[in-house]
Design a protein that fits this description.
This protein is an alpha/beta fold. It has a single domain (about 1-225), classed as Ribonuclease Z/Hydroxyacylglutathione hydrolase-like (Metallo-beta-lactamase, Chain A). The chain is built from six helices and 15 strands. The protein has helices at about 50-55, 55-65, 70-80, 150-155, 175-185, 205-210, and strands spanning about 1-5, 10-15, 20, 45, 65-70, 85-90, 95, 100-105, 110-115, 120, 125-130, 135-140, 160-165, 190, 225. The N and C termini lie close together (about 5 Å). Pfam families: Lactamase_B_3. Counteracts the endogenous Pycsar antiviral defense system. Phosphodiesterase that enables metal-dependent hydrolysis of host cyclic nucleotide Pycsar defense signals such as cCMP and cUMP. GO terms for molecular function: hydrolase activity.
């Protein structure tokens, strides 16, 4: 499983000739100089509807004629904006696709988008368990620390986890460190930090704390990859 980081919480995951992108916030991201037109994937998967996660979803889905996989209200919204195909799921639900499996987990956050002068509610936020080639990525989405992360770790063999560390809107580094221990991931990638001033954090310091706990982690710069 190859994972490439595209800033904020966006990951491109590929294995066995299949590629999916999670939370493709590219346009308008000050960290990123990537044209959404250059993204080639088999699916777009979303954790929730905030603009810094929903991002370029519809353009990428249209360019690739691929599905948007999301919580049902968010999937319906993407369809209304021109996504060619959507798969609306819900918390706890799983589906096997061609070459990968998606299961949505709990996340404690909110989910909405500003559409003109309207704030549109887009269902529950979620985490993602993505299994490809026999390996599983847990993308926690935007979330606070919550006790059932222990259960997620007990019920799943998590090879790699993407955990938010930005604080202010999500877990901070201290809570993310505890989450990493609970989920027992083989590898941890910090996400959702340093994009905007309120979420500035030291990713290297977080990974150093992981190592003190006997855990492995990687700080990925935009465009960098790790093979799990």
């Amino acid at each position: 499983m190859k994972i490439t980081y595209y800033g904020q919480s966006c990951l491109l995951v590929e294995e066995g000739g299949k590629k999916v992108i999670i939370d493709p916030f590219l346009s308008g991201n000050p960290q990123v100089n990537i044209d959404p037109k250059d993204i080639q994937v088999d699916a777009v998967i979303l954790t929730h509807g905030h603009g810094d996660h929903y991002g370029d979803t519809v353009e990428i889905a249209q360019n690739n004629n691929c599905p948007v996989i999301a919580i049902v209200e968010l999937a319906q919204y993407a369809a209304s904006k021109g996504a060619p195909e959507v798969v609306g799921m819900n918390l706890g639900g799983a589906k096997q696709f061609d070459g990968f499996k998606v299961k949505f987990t709990l996340a404690f956050h909110t989910s909405s988008i500003q559409d003109g002068d309207q704030t549109v509610y887009l269902g529950e936020p979620a985490g993602i368990l993505l299994t490809m080639g026999g390996k599983t990525l847990y993308h926690a989405g935007d979330t606070a620390l919550f006790g059932d992360m222990k259960l997620i770790g007990e019920l799943n063999q998590i090879d790699v986890a993407a955990l938010p560390i930005g604080d202010f809107y999500t877990m901070g580094p201290e809570d993310a460190l505890l989450a990493a221990q609970w989920i027992k991931a083989g590898h941890v990638i910090p996400v959702h930090y340093n994009t905007f001033p309120p979420i500035e954090q030291d990713g290297d310091a977080f990974v150093a704390e992981l190592q003190k706990k006997g855990l492995q982690g990687s700080v990925l710069q935009v465009g960098e990859s790790v093979d799990i």
